[in-house]
Structure formats: C-alpha cells, structure tokens
Amino acid sequence: MEKKQLKKQWWFYGSVGALFLGSGLSLISEAGHWKHQAIDALYWIGGGILGLALAISGVVFLINAGILKERIRKL
C-alpha cells in the first residue's frame, strides 16, 4: 500500500477509535446513573450494553491504528 493511503487510514482508525472509546465510557457511566435514578431497566441495561460495545469497538479501532502506524514506520 502507498504510504499516503496508510496515513489516511491511520487517521480514520485513530479518530473513530477515540470517538467510540470516549462515547462508550461516557454511556457506561451514564447508564450507572440511570440505574440509581430508578429509570426503567430497559434503558440502563441497553445503555450499558451499547456503551460496552462502543468502548470495545473503540479499543479495536485504536489497536488497528497502532498496527497501521507500525506499517507506516516500516515503509
């Protein structure tokens, strides 16, 4: 792959990963507050699950960005 294209992918994976990780952690925290405010279980359980999915996806994107960064260094 061309170095310029790898850099674009690196920026994409890094920014999306940071966005997903931050949003996921925020949603997990918010779901915990919803639980203690006696909001319907569907909302706080669904929010917690969605938050976990976003956070894990963010970590995966950031790992892929790290792998791409290593490939860029080798070029």
What labels describe this entry?
rod-shaped; single chain; 91% helix; mainly alpha; 75 residues
Task: Give a description of the structure.
The chain is mainly alpha-helical and 75 residues long. It has one domain. Helix 1 runs antiparallel to helix 2. The longest helix is centred in the N-terminal third of the chain and has 34 residues. The relative contact order is 0.22. The model has no long low-confidence stretch (mean pLDDT 95).
Please outline what is shown here:
The chain has 75 residues and is an all-alpha fold. The chain has helices spanning 3-36, 41-74.
Overall geometry: rod-shaped
Count of DSSP helices?
2
N-to-C span = 9 Å
How do the SSEs run, as a string of H and E?
A: HH
Number of domains: 1
Helix percentage: over 70%
What can be said about the biggest beta sheet?
Answer: none
Structural class label: mainly alpha
pLDDT < 50 runs, ≥5 residues: none
Compute the number of strand runs.
Answer: 0
How much is the average pLDDT? 95
Question: What is the rounded Rg?
Answer: 16 Å
Strand content: under 5%
